[in-house]
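Good day; I would like, with your permission, to put a structural problem before you. What I wish to show you is a protein chain and, alongside it, a tokenised description of its three-dimensional fold. Please examine both parts with care and let me know of anything in them that strikes you as inconsistent. Thank you for your consideration; the sequence and its tokens are set out here:

***
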Amino acid sequence: MGAENAYVGWVPNVRSHLSFSLIASARHIEAFTRAYSDRPKQPAQRLVVVYQERISHDLPWSARGIRKDRPDLVHQWVLEGRTRSTRLPVLGSSEIEKDAVDGCWLATEPDRQGMLLGRVHVLPHQEDADARHRQTAAISAIRSLIDRPSSIVRDASAADRTDRELDELVASLAQELRECNNRVEVEFALMRTGELRLWYSTETTPALDADRLFQIAEQAYFFIKDAVHDHTHHDPSSDQITPLTRVKQDRRESGHGNEIAWRRETLWSLSREIERLQRKNGLISLRQSLGVIAYAEAFQNYLMGHERDETMPTRFRPATGVHDYDFKHLKDSVKASIDVASAKQSQRVQMILAGGGTFISMASLATSLVNGHNGVARAWEEPRSHYVGLEVPEGLLRFLVSNPLLAGALAAIALLVAVSYVLADGEGGLFNPFQRVISQHARAASVSLGKTDLAAYWWDVGFHVLCVLASFVLVALLVLGIWSI
């Protein structure tokens, strides 16, 4: 905690009891975790190794395109750590440990594996071909090391062999990492409560300015969050609902010290995210806000009531410089908003379905009346001018009659777009997983080409309409292609 370049944040979780054995189990991340043998004279430990390729960008490009055109944005991340014993405050306890010199401290209890301690290694893109080849080989070897330990079986009779193999894995990992040039190491300590400490050791701190060091530490923070928690209540691509706070050496004033500052920043950030989701006023965002409220309540209950001693991190004192948020009434308000939005959405869907049904009924009735009138005119052999038409272009009508499957497919797509757009709160609709990329392109076009706010709005709308028309054309070509086979 006393390092010059140190940072602190929180990994969101609602139980405040992270399971290190389940790290990366629900994410597309390569990971290995295994416990050392539990023997009386040795502390309980678990080894955790994680690998992930991460692309640092906000561009609306595919990952394959980024790797090809901007390889400098692609970084390899490796986490290695072991669990350690630590002490945690006894929540809800009135027991106080008094010190004649330093005052009152909260009672604590040991947690045998309450902290994951280790390093995050950042492997940037190598411009030199030889260095890039060595790093690629090292990454391949690291991934093999992560996959290989499936043969390491937890067997009490082979405890020494299992521990030796785990130690050999750590040594091999260190050897492969040494083959990578310009590697940056960030030390970390992750508590079961989600509290995360990051810092640069004095020996391995890269020669970079403070802002660049913070950016690397922030990316390490996102990497750890991506591996540890499951992004249940927010988009994994936008994992910034909790901030990383810089530990300032001169921030010692009462009520505004580092231990209070990072807690306040975290709770404020969660509150801002709740308000942002509420303002979107969609069912999905409102339900997501309930999840973020659960995060905020968990953080407030487990971490806002105490602060660490910055000179002795295993001691805790009651936090007096913070105030609690009333999330109960906020939750009631969000639930009421969900009920209102659900009723409105249900009504919109019913109106769309009713409108579609009415249109089909009226079209059928009009077609029947026209056919009946023309049939009578034909029976009386009246001139052609007495016939009635549907005022539909003859070519279009002939095309639809000749391609009934295509006509039905287009009608189904139109209804699907309308209904799904409503059900997805306008966030998914026809494009679903591609909506984010399309919206980014539309926003970029509107900002670049629209000289005024009104022009930018119409450029944005026009881009989406163009995508809809393009999707219709693609579906029509697909149907025609299948029909012609």
Observations:
- The chain has a mean pLDDT of 77.
- Residues 342-484 form one domain.
